[in-house]
Specification:
The complex is a heterodimer of chains A (about 350) and B (about 600). With about 350 residues, chain A is mainly beta. Chain A has three helices and 28 strands. Chain A has a domain at about 255-350. Helix content of chain B is about 5%, strand content about 55%.
Chain lengths: ~350, ~600
């Protein structure tokens, strides 16, 4: 770069910067953080023998704070085995499957707002639609027959209805007024997707995925919806179904020496998934599986490898379960696979939730 | 006054190398210590809790041992699942013997110390250190011996003990002893139940869903054909139901049911030089776990075990004894997650005891097991004791011990690993014993190197699977003390224990979780005429709860203090009361498991 260009650039930059700051002064409230925990992300640590926690990490990855719920709400905790968080406006709903509990907090301050503490039986994941929360419940572990969706009134925080799904109920996605429920559950060979209509409170349809339709030892791992298609990732394949016709559009076989495919995430027209300690990526219209990993990270944890995974705003987030008996870590990478930071979190980190 | 004398016995901390040479003579009544334990413990240290001491404690085995031994206990809430850590080892590395038969669960290799009601036993003897050559699997950290005694001495006695305490807790024990010169019987029934709904200290919350009960019926019969020809039969039925305490009110309410049956037939014939003991035992264990009491759904396990044992000893002279033990064990077990499996284990052991002279004794022993189900090492032990003076004795014991893979380890439907080997532990122990007429002190140092420790770790297919991967070194020191003095109509007895324990994972170099570096217990008993007072104290050091020893999550050290007062209203009638946790300590020995504050018990004992 020539010196003149550099100086020119610096000059323009300084003008822009000062303009921005002037602008800030003018409408000062716009970027004002809404609470201590704005402008960063949460890592959910499921805990083991004791209650789970939430770690807050700032957007610049430079500061982190452990067990923020216990810190803000002294003497209380989130319950055992915190599974997931879902959001509605300013509120975060934190699900504990070991304590049949959903703790509702302000997502920016983490102050307790209320709790759903009855009508749940091993709650797992939730979504909000039309003023109500829909939360999957596993009930008896040994059978899928009693798994149900709890319909929660968000004003009263009471479970107002429960609807049996008729199959294992795991993660769920709301799209265009329908709720798509993944019918799998860890360590059980199972698959399929139930389509639930919240207007009628019934399961209207099901999609048969590979894991369900074949005599195979494979479990549906994760689902994603993007542009009228639902993508279903099983151990060795990615299937794409048309949401309007519910028919299978395409299948990509995923065969890697490192193990089974997991953690489907679609971001900016790129499909991401993990195999063992590696992250793979392909275009949304790719017809074949990628060969080269974007990155591979180091882990001493056999079961906790890629225990949480997310791609968001040009960063790749990886959570390592560690030994589930002590604090573990998360790692954040750029899209080229360069490590940006390694951050200590709590016991058994299982997911990332962004607050910006 | 007899009560006082009996009481002394219960506090006796004995070195029991060989009955002839040892100091048990200071005791005026017979201590119930099984012969084998008494004879083959050279170089080791024995603590003996006799039945009247057991009456001073709550009936569960954990209560009896926690205040009187260096063993650390993890209790998942009062009355809930309780497991020992003896000399820094894990829950399946302490063997519990019922009249000489190893009763650790065939499923998980452990004994839940809240599923043993001590109301039926005449004595509980505790021996620190290895004992696998004689007592088999799990005898690594130490062994706990539950014993019933049979006396062929004409008598007819009834004893009733009734107690009532805080949280609506009942403890009732009845015992009938009847015997003639050639037969003897003892029948005991114990019931313990509690609402267990204590309030958490400094909160408005209570212990929820913690209620439990258990019943234990124990019968012992003996028949003497001839002085040297005796038949004995021991039988016990135990049944319990526990609701497991909740941590938070919204949790699913669970419960756990246990049934166990123990039977042992023993035929002993002895001559001038030989002793022959044939034993047949039948054990049954059964559990049901209800993960949600609102539904009928449960998981279960059931195992039936038959053991045949032949024990032959030959006395070459008054000083040399050779003992051979052959045994075969057959187990048939299954569970919700365990397909039905049969298992056969044969073993042979050879023991030699030599009293060289009045000062010096040693023993050598070896054992080998044969089974198709896992790899089993050859075991041995060597123990010796030498009395340098009439008040000082030095003891040494070296042994190799093991813990076999359990049904869960081998056969669990998802993850069970049929290729496991037994855990192996090499142990070295050096003991010093100082004894004056009414004062005794032992100081023992030990080192235990445990290899191939079985640990459940995540496997390739998403299931946890057990593997022989861990290596642990435990070492430390145990200090035992007792003192008693009678002057006129006063009697004073003092008892204390202290343990310093390091239990280190050799790969990570971290202390194992839930093993405190320090534990101490102490008790003082004082009687004047018909009145007696007693106090017990317990100190549990800080423990790690995280495998990386992050101190932020440690459980705090705590002190517990109990005090009791009793009065012998008449020869046959005693009334008393006890206050537990006088300091109202808000303590936990398992994370998030709150324990009760100050609580009260009143009791009466009737002998007729």
């Amino acid at each position: 770069m020539k010196l003149t260009k550099f100086l020119m650039g610096a000059f323009i930059g300084s003008i822009l910067l000062s303009a921005c700051s002037d602008d800030d002064d003018f409408t000062g409230e716009i970027d004002e953080p809404l609470g201590t925990y704005d402008n960063g992300f949460f890592v959910l640590n499921e805990g083991s023998q004791t209650a789970g926690t939430v770690t807050y990490v700032s957007q610049d990855l430079q500061t982190s704070e452990q067990a923020i719920y216990q810190f803000v709400n002294e003497g209380d905790d989130l319950g055992n085995y915190v599974q997931s968080i879902f959001f509605n406006d300013d509120l975060a709903y934190i699900i504990s499957n070991g304590s049949n509990l959903i703790t509702v907090v302000n997502r920016y301050t983490f102050e307790l707002v209320g709790k759903v503490d009855s009508g749940l039986n091993i709650p797992y994941y939730g979504v909000v639609y039309n003023g109500k929360a829909y939360v999957t419940n596993l009930a008896d572990f040994s059978t899928g027959d009693d798994d149900y969706l709890a319909v929660i009134d968000l004003e009263t925080l009471q479970v107002e209805e429960t609807v049996i799904i008729g199959n294992y109920a795991d993660t769920l996605i709301e799209e265009d007024g329908l709720i798509y429920i993944e019918n799998s559950n860890y360590s059980i060979d199972n698959g399929g997707i139930s389509i639930f209509n919240p207007t009628t409170n019934t399961v209207e349809n099901t999609i048969e995925t590979y894991a369900e339709s074949e005599e195979v030892t494979s479990t549906l791992n994760s689902i994603e919806i993007e542009d009228d298609f639902i993508y279903a990732l099983s151990a060795d394949r990615l299937e794409k179904f048309n949401l309007n016709t519910l028919t299978l559009e395409s299948t990509i076989l995923l065969s890697y020496e490192g193990g089974s495919a997991a953690n489907l995430d679609i971001e900016d027209d790129q499909i991401y998934f993990t195999v063992g300690t590696s992250v793979y990526r392909m275009g949304i219209n790719a017809e074949e599986a990628p060969e080269e990993a974007v990155l591979t990270y180091n882990s001493n944890s056999a079961y906790g490898v890629m225990y949480g995974f997310e791609v968001e705003d040009n960063r790749i987030y990886i959570a390592d379960g560690g030994d589930f008996g002590s604090d573990s870590f998360v790692e954040v990478y750029d899209l080229q696979g360069n490590l940006l930071n390694n951050i200590t979190v709590g016991v058994g980190p299982n997911g990332f939730y962004f607050n910006d | 006054m007899k009560h006082f004398i009996r009481y002394i016995l219960f506090f006796g901390v004995l070195n029991s190398a060989f009955s002839q040479t040892d100091s048990i003579t200071v005791l005026e009544e017979v201590l119930v210590i099984p012969t084998k334990l008494k004879e083959f413990s050279t170089g080791q240290t024995l603590t003996s809790l006799q039945d009247s001491l057991l009456l001073q404690n709550k009936p569960s085995l954990i209560s009896a041992l926690n205040f009187n031994t260096p063993i650390y206990f993890k209790e998942n809430g009062l009355g809930m699942v309780a497991s020992p850590s003896f000399r820094g080892t894990n829950a399946s590395q302490t063997a519990v013997l019922w009249n000489g038969i190893n009763i650790n669960s065939r499923f998980n290799g452990q004994t839940d110390f809240n599923t043993i009601n001590t109301g039926s036993y005449d004595a509980i003897n505790i021996r620190g250190g290895g004992g696998s050559v004689i007592y088999g699997t799990g005898a690594i950290g130490g062994t706990v011996h539950l014993s019933n005694n049979i006396e062929f001495e004409k008598q007819f006695k009834n004893r009733i003990y009734l107690s009532y305490g805080s949280f609506n807790t009942y403890d009732a024990r009845y015992q009938l002893t009847a015997a003639e010169k050639n037969w003897s019987t003892k029948i005991s029934f114990s019931r313990n139940q509690s609402d267990n709904d204590f309030e958490y200290i400094d909160t408005d919350r209570k212990n929820l869903n913690g209620d439990f009960y258990n019943n234990s019926l124990n019968a012992v019969f003996g028949y003497q054909f001839h002085k040297n020809n005796t038949l004995k039969f021991y039988s016990e039925v135990f049944e319990s139901e526990r609701h497991f305490s909740l941590i938070r009110p919204s949790e699913n309410r669970t419960k756990y049911e246990d049934v166990s049956l123990k039977n042992l037939l023993e035929w002993e014939v002895s001559g001038e030089k030989i002793t022959s003991i044939a034993r047949v035992a039948y054990l049954k264990e059964e559990y049901k776990y209800f993960p949600n009491i609102e539904t009928e759904s449960f998981t279960f396990g059931e195992a039936n075990t038959v053991i045949g044992k032949y024990d032959f000893s030959y006395q070459f002279s008054k000083k040399i004894k050779l003992n051979a033990i052959l045994s075969h064990e057959y187990t048939d077990g299954e569970g919700s997650s365990i397909p039905q499996n049969e298992r056969n284990i044969s073993s042979g052991a050879l023991l030699l005891k030599h009293l060289v002279n009045e000062k010096w004794a040693y023993e050598i022993a070896a054992r080998k097991e044969l089974t198709n189900d896992y790899e089993s090492p050859s075991l041995f032990s060597f123990g010796t004791g030498y009395s340098f003076t009439d008040f000082y004795k030095l003891k040494l014991n070296v042994s190799k011990n093991f813990r076999i893979p359990t049904y869960n380890d081998l056969y669990w439907a998802t993850g069970g690993n049929p290729d496991l080997a037994a855990e192996e532990a090499m142990q070295y122990e050096l003991g010093n014993e100082i004894q004056f007429s009414n004062f005794k002190m032992t100081l023992t140092g030990y080192y235990n190197d445990i290899q191939q420790m079985i640990n459940w770790v995540p496997g390739n297919n998403g299931y946890w699977t057990p593997r022989n991967i861990d290596e642990v070194a435990t070492y430390g020191a145990e200090f035992l003390l007792n003192y008693k003095k009678q002057f006129g109509r006063h009697l004073l007895a003092v008892n204390g224990t202290y343990a310093y324990t390091v239990s280190e994972n050799k790969i990570t170099e971290k202390q194992l979780i839930y093993v405190p570096y320090h534990k101490a217990t102490g008790s003082i008993y004082y009687a004047f005429q018909d009145l007696f007072i007693e106090t017990q104290a317990l100190y549990n050091g800080e423990v790690f709860t995280r495998s990386d020893n992050n101190p932020r999550y440690n459980l705090d050290a705590y002190w517990l203090w109990n005090a009791g007062l009793g009065y012998h209203i008449s020869k046959n009638f005693t009334l008393g009361g006890k206050v537990r946790n006088l300091l109202n300590s808000d303590y936990q020995n398992v994370e998030d498991r709150r324990m009760p504050g100050t609580n009260y018990t009143i009791y009466l004992t009737l002998n007729f």
